[in-house]
Amino acid sequence: MQVPSPNAREAASMYGTAVAIFLVILVAALQGSVPPKTLFPYHIPLDPEGALELSWNVSYIQKNIHFLLLVHGLQAGVLFGMSDRGELEGADLVVLWTDGDRAYFGDAWSDNKGQIHLDTQQDYQLLQVQRTPGGLTLLFKRPFVTCDPKDYVIEDGTVHLVFAILEEPLRSLEDINTARLKPGLQRVQLLKPNISTPALPPDILTMDVRAPNVVIPGVETTYWCYITELPKGFPRHHIVMYEPIVTEGNEALVHHMEIFQCAAELDRVPSFSGPCDSKMKPDRLNFCRHVLAAWALGAKAFYYPEEAGLAFGGPGSSRFLRLEVHYHNPLKIRDRRDSSGIRLYYTAMMRRFDAGIMELGLVYTPVMAIPPQETSFILTGYCTDKCTQLALPPTGIHIFASQLHTHLTGRKVVTVLARDGQEKEVVNRDNHYSPHFQEIRMLKKIITVHPGDVLITSCTYNTQDRKLATVGGFGILEEMCVNYVHYYPQTQLELCKSAVDPGFLQKYFHLANRFNSEEVCTCPQASVPEQFASVPWNSFNRDVLRALYAFAPLSMHCNKSSAVRFPGEWELQPLPKIVTKLEEPVPQCPVIQGQQPAAPIEVSIGGNRG
Amino acid sequence: MQVPSPNAREAASMYGTAVAIFLVILVAALQGSVPPKTLFPYHIPLDPEGALELSWNVSYIQKNIHFLLLVHGLQAGVLFGMSDRGELEGADLVVLWTDGDRAYFGDAWSDNKGQIHLDTQQDYQLLQVQRTPGGLTLLFKRPFVTCDPKDYVIEDGTVHLVFAILEEPLRSLEDINTARLKPGLQRVQLLKPNISTPALPPDILTMDVRAPNVVIPGVETTYWCYITELPKGFPRHHIVMYEPIVTEGNEALVHHMEIFQCAAELDRVPSFSGPCDSKMKPDRLNFCRHVLAAWALGAKAFYYPEEAGLAFGGPGSSRFLRLEVHYHNPLKIRDRRDSSGIRLYYTAMMRRFDAGIMELGLVYTPVMAIPPQETSFILTGYCTDKCTQLALPPTGIHIFASQLHTHLTGRKVVTVLARDGQEKEVVNRDNHYSPHFQEIRMLKKIITVHPGDVLITSCTYNTQDRKLATVGGFGILEEMCVNYVHYYPQTQLELCKSAVDPGFLQKYFHLANRFNSEEVCTCPQASVPEQFASVPWNSFNRDVLRALYAFAPLSMHCNKSSAVRFPGEWELQPLPKIVTKLEEPVPQCPVIQGQQPAAPIEVSIGGNRG
């Protein structure tokens, strides 16, 4: 480790940056030791080869993140950073690189053509560079918000980490074009909630749900299905915690895992262990959809709040569980064996409250559709005051976790709680949502929903690559907009979702027909997907569909289970009136005391280059 | 004049502002002399009593304005500043005030309730305070853009200057509530164009067009009409410049003046001098609408570009001129005499080009309407590529000045030039447009329009105080969206405006009928204003009207005069497709080297208080 010398000045002029006066960033020299792992509670492998590993911690007080990047077998350098949706273009980056003689570290950004430029404001602050037997470690920190317009704003929800290896020395940073690099992407929730771990009961038991000895198929994507069962006569327990068990060496392959409970009505589910899309898969597995546990890459153990647990076992509850493991194997590695799964921690000392899961958002129906070629079309589902008034206890319910869900065109999801026509707080928001990264996330703040409150779930879709309208439905090419909220105490309300009134949609088709010279099929025998498929998508029909969804009354699903509605009139319900909207938080930009130098700093990375 | 002493520290703490470290702003002490008037080319009286006068200059290089505020008969202080539309609430202010003992100057802002607060960032920089026999002068400067979110951004176009007199000493700035002050408002173009004055020809002649010896009526608003005529046989000349002649002492009463030429078809126009709304006014005056010259408060002389002049006199041109003077007399002063008018400078040495005036924007027709209760509804008028292709010379025309025009609900106006589907440049933009302040403004940059170019004029309206839709038309309660552009060389094209196709509007009425349970009149015998009056203005009908205007084909008016179209098909014309839009300029916020103190500075204002 070497503190940057005055040669950094030469480096700056070498890279053509005309900086009259600049400061050398202080590099804290922690002599001879890697910061202990405990300082970095979060850890994720970045690339499938295992060349890059990231650990980090979050300070909500200082509003910054410390990153510890471990580089195995360093070549000529490395790029690491973040971008809106995981592209190496338009990314906010740190770059470590060498010109073959010296090595440098800088805060940079890539433009939309992939050209890399040094930031005028250096917000990634290098704290330590160290060679260890395991590789080179870079310790650096960055504020959540830098106020540099070229920088990514680190928000709650998904962050798309991007990275690439530099194989050859460079004359200058501007010599890099990301188009010539092999791009890497890893999605993660960087801003993990800062929640203290609830105490576990003394009688805690564990149950490992894992598919034993799976041979991971040599294809990029596999969803592996495995059926297991609870012991006969297994009584009612509370699951209070669960954590992933990932087979050593397969950390970069196991992308996400979920345990589903089968429907209580099934008296028997045949054994199965194989790809979920296998022709051999028994049909009955389709009735195993009740989520018990879910984990995704980068997530840690999931703890229920101390006063609640998820009931399983006992009468009225299926003994059959389905484990689903998503293997992400872009290198198409063959013959790798895996026995990953989830370890459930459960107790017979039932906690005060049963936890429940409720579905918010849109009903799975084709009446909710997204025109093709839209970059950010928003669909909104409501849980109305009438439903919460009827179905929630007087003291309300407490939402402590949330799992957002859409299919392939989903880009953002948010659920907002409104009361008396005013948006009050965000239940969960992900501005960089990816359908490929669906975690159950603990909320940073428990949200209490009272009877009469309204829950508004909005999903933003990108259908630029679609030729026809994308309608709502179960199919992977259809869309969903769902927030599975985890709450307690459990109520009968399992599903509080909406869709546009189908009669008003028929008025829309009639109107689209009238406004356009082309023939639009409004024949009553045509299905809604067929009707949507024949709408000519000019600006008028797009705008009017938006106007329809913002105006037409709702068909409400205020249901005890997916098929049983609460008693009451749920058709032609008025759209909740929202008078006051929550404003998206505007970053509070600190007053800048002095300009940081627009120059990389020189670092010593030892003799391990090339 | 006294340089602020260290007592400013005490003042700061007295006002409860906890500033740990702060700097005393340097006040430049110009000993014993008011800065010469020539340093401040622009001048305007602020209040009708003549207590406040403002002079200013603009530096486009330093991007700031120097203000010289003259206060006659200072009482306990004065507020001066700017706000979006002239309210004292939500304003960006400088305040000079006394606590009865000391006097202070500070950069402040008023919240929406009228409470005044000191800015954390002091961007109005006081340069000089001086007592002269004429009163107290305050010299201060401010950048156009301060990057303080509480501050007004000084843009091109109208600025609403606000002011008020403080009559009593204050314990602190927070004691002021604007609701208890008498608000003052003066509209002005602060950012005057920085154009060098074209040379005048040696044979220059002048003609004063003024209404002699008018007794200004003792009412707030009078439009005075006066008919005069050119000498018999007056040959063709070029007007190359004109300037206001305002009777001394009436500077605050004469709000704007225009000279119109009567229609050439009228062989005789009777003499008249009286209010324009007088029952005695001859009807023929309604045919005197061709603008020759226009001036408004704060404007200086208007110069034609050196290669062009406005033709008047000679055959085919009316000898009769109408002068219109708008007297703004809020104090209802009686028996004040006035002979204000405009001095035309003209030459017989005809310049190379005749200048012309062309109308852009919307046709005066009720098919273009604004729903009631809208805060910012936009209507857009087009001058299409087909029309400019047909009517403009191959070398194009050069627009050098522009006068924006709407009726009472107009709030913003902008004209943009587009070429090949891309918006290229702004012809004229006013984000704080007021129908009460319609100047001819020289453009900062001459805009060349080529055949095939498209000119897009958009007006933003506020109809919050209307119960029914506001339709397009000539009436003062109807609306217009017009940009009168002054250009050369003159062409036959007098009018290039559009409206929505009336057939598509009928489809809209039909649709509004179908979507609403209420009965909407779509009977063909009803007039368009009657149809609009019966639309139930729910969100759907508002959104669909917007969608209609953004989609439906145009009825184009590509006219030689208001009644004669160029040959060609002008109905059902496609809406110009704009692929790339101009982005509104984002203020480039300078890097702040150190925080300014959030404290007022103490000033000496001599013994003239109370």
TrEMBL record, chains A, B:
User: Where does it live in the cell?
Assistant: Cytoplasmic vesicle, Secretory vesicle, Chromaffin granule lumen; Cytoplasmic vesicle, Secretory vesicle, Chromaffin granule membrane
Q: Which GO terms describe its molecular function?
A: copper ion binding; dopamine beta-monooxygenase activity; L-ascorbic acid binding
Looking at the record, the residues that make up the DOMON domain are 50-166
The catalysed reaction is:
dopamine + 2 L-ascorbate + O2 = (R)-noradrenaline + 2 monodehydro-L-ascorbate radical + H2O
> What does UniProt give as GO cellular component?
chromaffin granule lumen; chromaffin granule membrane; extracellular space
Q: Where are the transmembrane segments?
A: 12-30
Q: Which PROSITE patterns match?
A: CU2_MONOOXYGENASE_1, CU2_MONOOXYGENASE_2, DOMON
Which pathway does the record list?
Catecholamine biosynthesis; (R)-noradrenaline biosynthesis; (R)-noradrenaline from dopamine: step 1/1
Q: Which cofactor does it need?
A: Cu(2+)
Coiled-coil spans in chain: none
Q: Which Pfam families match?
A: Cu2_monoox_C, Cu2_monooxygen, DOMON
Is the Cell wall biogenesis/degradation keyword given for this protein? no
**Entries under CDD domains matching the protein:** DOMON_DOH (cd09631)
Q: What is its EC number?
A: 1.14.17.1
Q: Which GO terms describe its biological process?
A: dopamine catabolic process; norepinephrine biosynthetic process; octopamine biosynthetic process
In the bilayer, the protein is annotated as: Single-pass type II membrane protein
Assigned keywords, A-Z: Catecholamine biosynthesis, Copper, Cytoplasmic vesicle, Disulfide bond, Glycoprotein, Membrane, Metal-binding, Monooxygenase, Oxidoreductase, Signal-anchor, Transmembrane, Transmembrane helix, Vitamin C
Q: Function of this protein?
A: Catalyzes the hydroxylation of dopamine to noradrenaline (also known as norepinephrine), and is thus vital for regulation of these neurotransmitters.
User: Can you tell me which family this protein belongs to?
Assistant: Belongs to the copper type II ascorbate-dependent monooxygenase family.
Q: How does it assemble?
A: Homotetramer; composed of two disulfide-linked dimers.
Task: Give the protein name, as stated in the record.
Answer: Dopamine beta-hydroxylase
